[in-house]
Specification:
This protein has 343 residues and is α/β, with parallel strands linked by helices. The protein is built from 10 helices and 8 strands. The strands form 2 sheets. Strands 3, 4, 5, 6, 7 and 8 form a 6-stranded mixed sheet that branches. Strands 1-2 form a two-stranded antiparallel ribbon. The radius of gyration is 20 Å and the shape is globular.
Length: 343
């Protein structure tokens, strides 16, 4: 049994606590009726009700597609969230959305992991929210408009055909510098060892940036080693972060960020992801993927956080007006708990 199998089974037993009666009917996912999916017409219930409309608006107005998303009424492909309850994108939005408008919450949640965090800063390069304010956390971030730090080709968009951070936030440090964090959010993902990607275009696009990294870390395995998931994702985010920093040094940069780091949030319980080295060449650098990447990444530019630790912090610091959301998150994603959230 994988962690994903465990989560599917858990949802079958608790979904009546979280969703409408209609939504609890089995949904069709990739052509098969599945009990761990919401009924297709109710896929928006994959998002927490209190901010559901705002999150849908955020994605729609920025032309961000939902992973395995469904057709909306306007005929937009992937215009609605996936109906799969183990969707990591919905999980990311459910757990982080309130931080788009609550910089104090963002600081309280992430400061235990980034002790240098003094104050959350708005994502000034994102579009304004409906009330005219800037979000303090962005989703599917590829960089400010007009940027293409990695010189990627094709029809680039947030969340598609470009290196995208699942989420991003920035903050002022106690030393006065500005730090931007590019986040990768994992839930039930796991990857199988398979033949590396030999696409010549992808190899050509990233080689120059990889060689810049190699100058800092001569112990890096050969370039081709990284063209297999999940290491391909981590490589691209690391290269994007470095390119953003170099742009700052050249007088441009990403919203004034002096430092750009990569953060991975993944369940400790999902050992199928955290301890599965799809390429043996990287296993020598650490017992887990996070530990190995921390060894290879530029100094102080990578951090791995267990989802369990992040959600426990949310439980501890969420203010009273957000307790209903906090309880939802702990009920829905508290796989390690035997009791409900603290009231």
């Amino acid at each position: 049994m994988t962690f994903r199998d465990d989560e599917k089974a858990r949802y079958e037993s608790i979904k009546f606590k979280l969703f409408s009666k209609a939504a609890c009917q089995p949904g069709v996912y990739r052509g098969i009726s599945r009990s761990f999916c919401l009924q297709n017409d109710c896929s928006t219930e994959n998002l927490y009700v209190e901010f559901r409309r705002d999150a849908l608006t955020y994605f729609r107005t920025r032309a961000i597609g939902w992973h395995d998303g469904l057709l909306d009424r306007q005929g937009n492909k992937k215009g609605l969230p996936s109906n799969h309850l183990c969707c990591s994108q919905s999980s990311c939005v459910n757990c982080l959305w309130p931080m788009t408008t609550h910089p104090g919450l963002l600081a309280s949640v992430f400061r235990p992991f980034f002790p240098e965090l003094a104050e959350g800063l708005p994502i000034t390069a994102d579009d304004p929210l409906p009330d005219g304010t800037q979000p303090y956390l962005a989703f599917e971030w590829i960089g400010k408009k007009g940027s293409n730090y990695l010189n990627e080709i094709g029809n680039r968009a947030r969340g598609a055909n470009a290196t995208s951070a699942d989420f991003a936030f920035r903050f002022q440090r106690h030393d006065g510098r500005i730090q931007l964090v590019l986040g990768e959010w994992k839930y039930t993902e796991h990857y199988l060892a398979k033949q590396v990607d030999t696409n010549p275009t992808r190899r050509r696009i990233h080689r120059e940036h990889f060689e810049q990294w190699q100058k800092q870390q001569p112990l890096l395995p050969e370039y081709s080693t990284f063209f297999i998931e999940p290491f391909y994702q981590l490589m691209r985010l690391t290269l994007l972060a470095q390119a953003m920093e170099r742009a700052r040094a050249e007088g441009e940069g990403e919203m004034g960020a002096d430092l750009v780091s990569v953060l991975v949030v993944a369940p400790k319980a999902n050992r199928d992801y955290t301890e599965n080295f799809t390429t043996p060449a990287l296993a020598q650098f650490g017992r887990t993927i996070g530990a190995a990447w921390a060894y290879l990444a530029p100094p102080d530019r990578f951090l791995a956080i267990a989802t369990e630790s992040l959600l426990t912090t949310i439980e501890q610091v969420a203010p009273e007006p957000l307790h209903a959301w906090r309880n939802y998150v702990l009920t829905r994603y508290g796989w390690w708990r035997t009791a409900g959230p603290t009231q």
